Amino acid sequence: ENPEYYFSRALVYFDLEDFQTAINDFSQALDKRLSAPFKAFFHRGMCYRRVKRLDESLKDLKHALSLDNSHAEAHNQLGLSLCEAKDYQTASSEFTSALELLHETQPSDVALTAKYHSNRGLALDKMGQHHLALDDFTAAIERDDTEPHYFFNRGNCQYALKAFDAAIEDYSAAVKLDPKKAVYWHHIGLGYQALEQIERAIQYFQKALEKDTAHHPSRFHMGLMYHRGKEYDKALEAFAEVPATEALYEARGKVYCDMNTQDAYQKAYDDFHLAISVKPLNALHYYNRGTVLHLMKRHQDALQDFNKALILGEGGQLPTEEPAERDERAEAVEEERERERERAAEHQHEHEALLSSLLGGVRSRGIPADTLAILKRLASSPGVGPSDIETILAHIVRQKGDSSQQGEGEAGDAFS
């Protein structure tokens, strides 16, 4: 049997995106000693990536490059597979190799050069190197200003760098090139949200939903904006069509909290309880539930939740523990509390002076009187010292914002 026949048929299956069948035929061609195996390894490596077999994809693409290291597109494809494997640093190096080889062999191919710059920009962006990524996306746009996702990706870099006006400008350019894509409209809304322009943000989230009624990030953020504008019923109406997630429970619970009725407080409690059930080691969820329990005048329950938030700590997460490890940790926590009580008894006058200083600055930071009452109750709890009050105070200051970055939807466009 002629291996060339298998190889040719595999290319047809590849074009039809029947990647598993293509893999079978490329393998047959290689098993039968295809005379020029580079293209078979190259294409099979791409097929493996499409079916999420990354180890095999990386192996094939590296083998292809061992046969011909001067092939720019093979370096690009290896970079794409490395990105799928989240090895962005090595991927960036492969995209650089692709650019260098392309400059040597096909300097006039501006579209391909733009694509490689964009791919490297995405890898750099994933590593948090936003300024370098911005340069790559700009280079891509300079060579090909007809691709909307180049503008979109640069807009995401601008957003990450808090250059929100520039981000909106890039997102708007993407919309002009592809007005049907909801995510571009959505990100313009995010830009206006970051600029505190609530009405304009809502307008663009609505535009996104006109393009795609199932674009839930836009509906979620529209709910956040209605909440910020104190239109609580509209916020709840928007949240009603959002899939149930931890972020939804937290955001909706905050709306109920601000409605200031006992019935709403109970609904807020239910939502924060659900958030805890999804992520039971998140300190902020206990803080939120403690806040509403205080509003419901369930003070002892509120103190338990605030103390739980303190135990979980600033990061809000604890590693998964075996029962024996939990018991040991509980004993250690109790021992530390006992030592704290002893220290508090020995230094009560110092405690009171520090506490007075901390609480004296609360009103100047715009924190309401009912929250001050929470802090005073916490201050009298066993094992809670001034440093703990500072931790809670930091949570409260952050709490004055909203979950503006949750549920934003697509953070970046696809590699190509």
UniProtKB/TrEMBL annotation:
The keyword Ion transport does not apply. This is UDP-N-acetylglucosamine--peptide N-acetylglucosaminyltransferase SPINDLY. It holds the Pfam family TPR_16. PROSITE patterns: TPR. Keywords: Repeat, TPR repeat. Coiled coil: none annotated. InterPro entries: TPR-like_helical_dom_sf, TPR_rpt, Ycf3. Residues 315-351 are annotated as: Disordered.
